[in-house]
Automatic annotation (TrEMBL):
Record-linked PROSITE patterns: GST_CTER (PS50405)
GO molecular function, one term: glutathione transferase activity
Keywords tagged on the record: Transferase
Name of this chain's protein: Glutathione S-transferase family protein
Domain GST C-terminal span(s) in chain numbering: 171-298
Binding site for glutathione: 96, 129-132, 147-148
InterPro entries: Glutathione-S-Trfase_C-like (IPR010987), Glutathione-S-Trfase_C_sf (IPR036282), Glutathione_S-Trfase (IPR040079), Glutathione_S-Trfase_N (IPR004045), GST_Omega-like_C (IPR047047), GST_Omega/GSH (IPR016639), Thioredoxin-like_sf (IPR036249)
Cellular component, GO annotation: cytoplasm
Amino acid sequence: MGMLIDGKWESDDDKLVDDDGRLRRPDSAFRNWITADGSAGPTGEAGFRAEPGRYHLYIARACPWAHRTTIFRELKGLQDAIDLSVTHWLMAEDGWTFRPGPGVVPDPLHGADTVWQLYVKSDPRYTGRVTVPVLWDKQRDCIVSNESADIIRMFNSAFDGVGAGEGDYYPMELRGEIDAINDRVYDGLNNGVYKAGFAKKQSAYDEAVTDVFETLDWLEQRLSAHEWLCGDTLTEADWRLFTTLLRFDPVYHGHFKCNLRRLVDYPVLWDYTRRLFAHPAVAPTVDMDHIKRHYYQSHRHINPTGIVPKGPAMSFARD
Ligand SMILES: N[C@@H](CCC(=O)N[C@@H](CS)C(=O)NCC(=O)O)C(=O)O
């Protein structure tokens, strides 16, 4: 891993873990919003009107946060309106790159070799982490946003007047409930598995892994009464949960030591995951090879040999 300091790339060790051994995930730096009329969104500047062909999305197939954005691009039929580049699965001393490999889609706009070059192009003095996803504005030649939670909300509604498909995954009447579920799922599970996996002290790991399984137990309970997290309506909250559940047994159970139970040991959650997996928006976005190789080969501090396990033998397809 590495980071940019005043526009210069520094391959450092992991600086995200505090003295108490706990992972601290920094806030995303680019928080502008694409809106239907180009007015400012909840954060950042105005001037990013929804126009087909104007924006480009950079993602890694391995990354659960980037994965949400590709699911929303499919859900809303934005594949032709917003082009996609896909990084190499390996995140090593240059961070995310576009080096050739199966499933890699290079940067057609600048021919960038690395994602950090995109950050410097947008902000030559940038200091901070270089993360995916990145949503790029071709017109202003800058990053609109590098926060997946915001990007999925833009995709959900900003392009509705210019050709996006049906569907509202953040309906007005459910927003309070969705936000509350997201908060709990983010802290206990989406980020919880990372807190467990990247902990450098036993106490930090113990705390995180306990939260992970308390959150899964709570979800199992909640979903036994309803089809989706908010009852009969499939929402953003389900999609944000899905990308973590998909990675749970193949990666988080082994690599991040979240091994009290497996996803398949939760009958309700397992069935729910497979129902979401069967949604037509999902198949084009999943690359399990990128997912497994990324985690096991990139995080050498927790898997020094870089060996990628063969298992688990499991199928998300419903019989
Ligand atoms: N809050 C961001 C987090 C994105 C994120 O942390 N992405 C990871 C990949 S899974 C990354 O690019 N990490 C690189 C780094 O921290 O150096 C979002 O949801 O968009």
